[in-house]
């Protein structure tokens, strides 16, 4: 029987007992890939059916033949995967690197010797690594081009690029065109299509104001020519015909056929060799177009202008020269675009315009992601020089010694600064009234698309934004870093500078401090939930205070009654929402609201009206001054309190020795975090009353939970990491670092810190691995949490077995080496050798036993595989046996042979 029909029971026609699960055939199960029965939810199970002439034990020649076949298959797969790895990890990056070096050598001889350079074995590893970077860059460039094309297609091209294409498409005929000319020139201006969805509009934040200002409507000059006539109509028709000829099913079928396994060659076929050829060709093309040509354009320009010495002194000659080449290429595309517009070459005009958009977006991305964070990082470093007792000369020397590392570190610091500044702005939007921060772009706005802004807005507007951002970010750094440092040095002369030396004379291991910082302190400080709520509460309290002091509560937070009335009115008048949004707010609602309405070509998004008090500009100025004073005081507290607390606490441990301020600041921040956390917990219990907190909760739940938590913390965070770190020290560290003629010294604190790291790694690997008893127990402990902590379960199921295994691993080798070996009468040198090498020896024995058991299991699987290949004739579906009470059930069985 080749097919099966699923028979379902119903109230009118119930299935008899033998038909409950008997119509699930093996063939149907293979195609459906189902593991459980849809009716009884029982897992399918099969028993093999072997040929009657199968012997009890397989002959040796059958086992040997199956073993040889398996070995041959393994060798074949090994050769194939070796070829795949050699092609993708060797040929592709090595070819990309050698072609890249050949093109940028600048000599004709390098082109002639390129085939020989491809076969050269010099610097293989370095060239492969550099080639991987080149391939990654070309792949990212290709993906970015495809994605930018999708942005242009779905979001629409700029008006200066599409104005001649829109007029023929909107013209229904000569009569309509004549009528349109008779209606006046004002109606013939290119307007955005009303049927276009808002999500696919041309610009996100400020782009809709382009038609309102004729000076900003065009990014390029001399582009107000008439419609293109027959060429534009033909282009539009050809584009429509191409869209009609495109078949989505064929492309979907091609995508289904080309999988990652097939493309990379992991499916066992050799089709990937063709893909390797195309990747090498694509890499060469991208290197030639996007690196070689811009670099040489910039190089010729720099040499011609006489700036070669200045560029070489920057230590980034290649990068700066390439950027200059892209800038000149953009200017050239602008000029060519204008010439094509004058001579009415519409296809060339559109192609040059699209190329200009690609170059423009690329340069803007470099400026936004690369240059701006780098400027912020250097400005932060310059403003904080006195905090570390450094000078500009020191920074210049570090840049001269390692320019790449210095620039990367400053870029990273600037990127972190920009990220946290943006996060703080998002938090402000959650607290303040919608419309207060109208001058800042809302990153959470679903209509905000920075790439669309890069496509549509002209260059001078991006330059204006860039200068404004640099001024704002630089002023905040001056206010919150440079000025507080000057005040601290004036009030507490001995507090600064911070100790950031790379060496330490403290009697404590730097490694243990780093591990403690990474494993305990930073996870608590980087936990965003509580910290974000605390910061949000502080911002709300400050806003309420400033609002009532300056009578700006309505402006900052809005009126609660008005907000509720507005919400009810919006719920009752959903049909009139568009009309209300399109209406420009009156002047009494704020000039910024009207400005926002002009920007959005409608009402401001989420704007709420507010009450405007007397002398409103003066109150805004006082609000800004109050905000600056608050930021200054907050910066003073953040720069002094954690470091002072950390220094005071670490002095009890290290005495008068100086420690890196990273550890003291982290210790102080952690203590402050714990203090604030305890205060918030008490405030959460405060509504229940002081008597309940001190008596009832403490007696019933507090003391019991605290004792349980302390016991679990001692076992899981104290004993187990200490034993694990000591075992790791005896097995790995001591045999490798300490010679046999020296005595190893053990530091419990350092072993505990290493044990914390190893315990977290083992726990993570266990949770990612297969299901077994330790994973089940850890998941159960995580699920219970501290509130529902089960001390008996943790000790019996987790702590006791793990501690027992660790103690046995530590004690048994020690008893053998110290108690049994001396009784055998061996020399002291042998006893010392046994004591020092017994732990790694037992580890090696355990590993060999594990490998042996694994090989035995693999041989059993091979044995079953050989037996099934030669003697298996079918499989029998094991039926579900229903047990009703204590009565014995009748077992029904059915078999299906393949």
Automatic annotation (TrEMBL):
It catalyses: S-ubiquitinyl-[E2 ubiquitin-conjugating enzyme]-L-cysteine + [acceptor protein]-L-lysine = [E2 ubiquitin-conjugating enzyme]-L-cysteine + N(6)-ubiquitinyl-[acceptor protein]-L-lysine. GO terms for biological process: ERAD pathway. InterPro entries: MARCHF6-like_C (IPR056521). One of its GO terms (molecular function) is ubiquitin protein ligase activity. Its EC number is 2.3.2.27. It is found in: Membrane. It is a multi-pass membrane protein. The keyword Nucleus does not apply. Pathway: Protein modification; protein ubiquitination. It is an enzyme of class 2 (transferase). Keywords: Membrane, Transferase, Transmembrane, Transmembrane helix, Ubl conjugation pathway. Residues 218-234 have a biased composition (Acidic residues). Residues 695-867 form the E3 ubiquitin-protein ligase MARCHF6-like C-terminal domain. Residues 166-190 have a biased composition (Low complexity). Residues 166-206, 218-241 are annotated as: Disordered. The chain crosses the membrane at residues 86-112, 124-148, 276-298, 318-342, 354-380, 408-428, 466-488, 508-526, 620-642, 662-685, 706-732, 752-774, 798-826, 838-856. GO terms for cellular component: endoplasmic reticulum membrane. PANTHER family: E3 UBIQUITIN-PROTEIN LIGASE MARCHF6, SSM4 PROTEIN. This is RING-type E3 ubiquitin transferase.
């Amino acid at each position: 029987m080749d097919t099966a029909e699923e028979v379902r029971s119903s109230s009118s026609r119930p299935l008899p007992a033998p038909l409950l699960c008997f119509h699930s055939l093996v063939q149907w199960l293979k195609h459906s890939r189902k593991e459980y029965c849809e009716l009884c939810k029982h897992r399918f199970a099969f028993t093999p059916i072997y040929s009657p002439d199968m012997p009890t034990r397989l002959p040796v020649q059958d086992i040997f033949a199956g073993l040889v076949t398996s070995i041959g298959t393994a060798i074949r797969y090994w050769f194939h995967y070796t070829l795949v790895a050699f092609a993708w990890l060797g040929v592709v990056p090595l070819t990309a690197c050698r072609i890249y070096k050949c093109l940028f050598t600048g000599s004709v001889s390098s082109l002639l010797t390129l085939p020989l350079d491809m076969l050269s074995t010099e610097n293989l590893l370095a060239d492969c690594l550099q080639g991987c970077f080149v391939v990654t860059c070309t792949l990212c460039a290709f993906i970015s081009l495809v994605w930018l094309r999708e942005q242009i297609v779905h979001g629409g091209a700029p008006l200066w690029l599409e104005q001649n294409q829109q007029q023929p498409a909107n013209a229904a005929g000569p009569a309509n065109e004549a009528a349109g000319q008779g209606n006046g020139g004002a109606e013939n201006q290119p307007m955005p299509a009303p049927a276009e969805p808002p999500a696919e509009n041309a610009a996100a934040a400020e782009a809709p104001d382009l038609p309102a200002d004729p000076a900003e409507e065009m990014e390029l000059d001399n582009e107000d020519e008439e419609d293109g006539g027959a060429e534009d109509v033909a282009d539009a028709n050809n584009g429509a015909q191409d869209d009609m000829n495109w078949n989505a099913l064929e492309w979907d079928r091609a995508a289904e056929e080309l999988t990652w396994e097939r493309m990379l060659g992991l499916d066992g076929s050799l089709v990937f060799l063709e893909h390797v050829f195309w990747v090498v060709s694509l890499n060469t093309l991208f290197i030639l177009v996007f690196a070689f040509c811009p670099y040489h354009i910039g190089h010729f320009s720099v040499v011609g202008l006489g700036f070669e010495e200045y560029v070489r002194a920057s230590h980034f000659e290649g990068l700066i020269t390439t950027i200059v080449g892209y800038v000149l290429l953009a200017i050239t595309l602008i000029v060519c675009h204008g010439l094509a517009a004058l001579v009415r070459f519409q296809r060339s005009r559109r192609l040059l315009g699209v190329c200009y958009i690609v170059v423009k977006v690329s340069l803007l991305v470099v400026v936004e992601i690369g240059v701006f964070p780098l400027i912020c990082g250097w400005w932060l470093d310059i403003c904080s020089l006195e905090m570390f007792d450094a000078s500009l000369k020191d920074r210049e020397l570090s840049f001269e010694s390692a320019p790449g590392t210095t620039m990367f570190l400053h870029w990273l610091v600037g990127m972190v600064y920009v990220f946290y500044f943006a996060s703080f702005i998002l938090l402000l939007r959650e607290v303040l009234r919608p419309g207060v921060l109208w001058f800042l772009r809302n990153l959470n706005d679903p209509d905000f698309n920075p790439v669309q802004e890069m496509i549509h807005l002209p260059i001078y507007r991006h330059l204006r934004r860039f200068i404004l951002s640099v001024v704002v970010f630089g002023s905040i750094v001056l206010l919150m870093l440079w000025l507080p440092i000057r005040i601290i040095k004036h009030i507490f002369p001995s507090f600064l500078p911070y100790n950031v030396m790379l060496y330490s004379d403290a009697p404590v291991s730097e490694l243990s401090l780093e591990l403690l910082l990474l494993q305990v302190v930073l996870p608590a400080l980087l936990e965003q939930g509580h910290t974000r709520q605390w910061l949000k509460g502080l911002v709300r309290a400050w806003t309420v205070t400033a609002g009532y002091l300056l009578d700006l509560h309505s402006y900052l937070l809005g009126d609660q009654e008005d907000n509720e009335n507005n919400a009810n009115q919006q719920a009752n008048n959903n049909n009139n929402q568009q009309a209300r949004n399109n209406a420009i707010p009156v002047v009494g609602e704020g000039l910024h609201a009207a400005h926002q309405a002009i920007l959005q070509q409608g009402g401001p998004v989420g704007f709420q009206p507010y009450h405007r008090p007397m002398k409103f500009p003066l109150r805004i100025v006082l609000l800004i001054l109050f905000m600056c004073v608050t930021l200054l005081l907050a910066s003073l507290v953040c720069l002094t309190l954690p470091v002072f607390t950390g220094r005071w606490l670490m002095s009890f441990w290290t005495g008068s020795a100086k420690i890196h301020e990273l550890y003291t600041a982290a210790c102080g921040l952690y203590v402050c975090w714990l203090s604030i956390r305890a205060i918030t917990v008490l405030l959460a219990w405060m509504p229940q009353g002081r008597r309940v907190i001190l008596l009832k909760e403490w007696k019933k739940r507090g003391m019991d939970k605290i004792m349980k938590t302390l016991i679990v913390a001692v076992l899981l965070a104290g004993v187990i990491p200490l034993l694990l770190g000591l075992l790791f020290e005896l097995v790995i560290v001591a045999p490798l670092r300490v010679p046999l003629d020296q005595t190893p010294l053990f530091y419990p604190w350092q072993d505990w810190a290493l044990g914390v790291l190893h315990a977290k790694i083992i726990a993570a690997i266990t949770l990612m691995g297969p299901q077994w008893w330790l994973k089940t127990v850890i998941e159960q402990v995580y699920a219970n949490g501290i509130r529902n902590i089960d001390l008996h379960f943790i000790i019996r199921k987790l702590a006791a077995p793990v501690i027992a295994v660790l103690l046995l691993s530590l004690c048994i080798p020690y008893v053998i080496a110290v108690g049994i070996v001396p009784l055998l009468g061996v020399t002291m040198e042998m006893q010392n050798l046994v004591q020092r090498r017994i732990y790694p020896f037992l580890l090696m024995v355990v590993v060999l036993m594990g490998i042996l058991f694994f090989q035995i299991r693999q041989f059993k699987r091979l044995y079953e595989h050989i037996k099934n290949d030669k003697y298996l004739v079918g499989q029998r579906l094991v039926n579900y046996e229903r047990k009703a009470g204590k009565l014995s059930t009748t077992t029904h069985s059915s078999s299906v042979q393949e």
